[in-house]
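Action item from last meeting closed. Structure (133 res):
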């Protein structure tokens, strides 16, 4: 990945452009009784052109995620906040469509757990601090 980023700096043939991203998350962990939680995604990106129609697109995003479930009439929710750093290799087409792929690193900002009738519990220390997709 570092080699690709270094190569992009050498082969740049146009100006770097930057932009903003915002969106909506609908997220759940796997399991039979899981319910979806809604969250937001907000951040920015840069596009670094390579030769031809290829672009490297690093991003910095805040993502609010989580899930909910119910067992024995007790409702529980997890609220997870991440800073995600995807680094995408993008192939544009002359028709305006594009395909992109690449790794994403996620860093926990906070993780809270709540059950009906109880206070929030901080669960960040029992989850992995860095994830790689």
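Sequence:
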């Amino acid at each position: 990945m570092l080699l690709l980023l270094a190569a992009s700096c050498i082969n740049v043939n146009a100006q770097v452009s930057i932009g903003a991203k915002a969106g909506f998350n609908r997220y759940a962990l796997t399991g039979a009784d899981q319910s979806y939680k809604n969250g937001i995604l907000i951040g920015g990106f840069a596009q670094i052109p390579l030769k031809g129609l290829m672009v490297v697109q690093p991003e910095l995003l805040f993502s609010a995620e989580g899930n909910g479930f119910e067992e024995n009439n007790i409702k529980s929710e997890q609220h997870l906040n991440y800073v995600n750093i995807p680094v995408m290799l993008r192939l544009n087409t002359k028709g305006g469509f594009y395909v992109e792929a690449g790794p994403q690193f996620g860093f926990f900002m906070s993780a809270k757990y709540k059950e009906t009738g109880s206070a929030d519990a901080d669960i960040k220390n029992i989850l992995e601090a860095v994830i790689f997709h």
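Note appended to the action item: Residues 2-132 form one domain.
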